[in-house]
Amino acid sequence: MAETLKTLIMLDATYVVIAIMTVLVFVYLELKSQ
After folding, report:
1. What is the domain extent for residue 4?
2. Following DSSP, what letter does each residue of 1-34 receive, concatenated?
3. Long-range contacts at 22-26 (CB < 8 A, ≥ 24 apart)
4. CA 6, 1, 13: angle at the middle one, nearest 5?
5. Where are the bilayer-spanning segments (predicted)?
6. Whole-angstrom Cα distance, residue 25 to residue 32?
7. Distance CA 11, CA 30 (A)
8. Would you say the C-alpha torsion 9, 10, 12, 13 has a positive or negative sign?
9. How many CA atoms lie within 13 A of 4 on its CB side?
10. CA distance 15 to 23
11. Does the predicted model carry a pTM greater than 0.85?
């Protein structure tokens, strides 16, 4: 059970990182276009 929990936490962290990167890219493009 603990292993499954660790895997889920790792997946959550990966999704959070991807989301942050996506937001940063959007913000960067918005600032660059002005």
Report:
1. 1-34
2. -HHHHHHHHHHHHHHHHHHHHHHHHHHHHHHHH-
3. none
4. 20
5. 13-31
6. 10
7. 29
8. positive
9. 1
10. 12
11. no
What's the token pair of residue 5?
């929990």
Over residues 6-33, the pLDDT tens digits come to 998 999 999 999 999 999 999 999 999 9
The amino acid sitting at 1 is M
Count of domains forming the chain: 1
Q: How far, in Å, CA of 20 to CA of 29, rounded?
A: 14
Tokens of 20: 């942050």
Q: By three-state DSSP, how is residue 34 classified?
A: coil
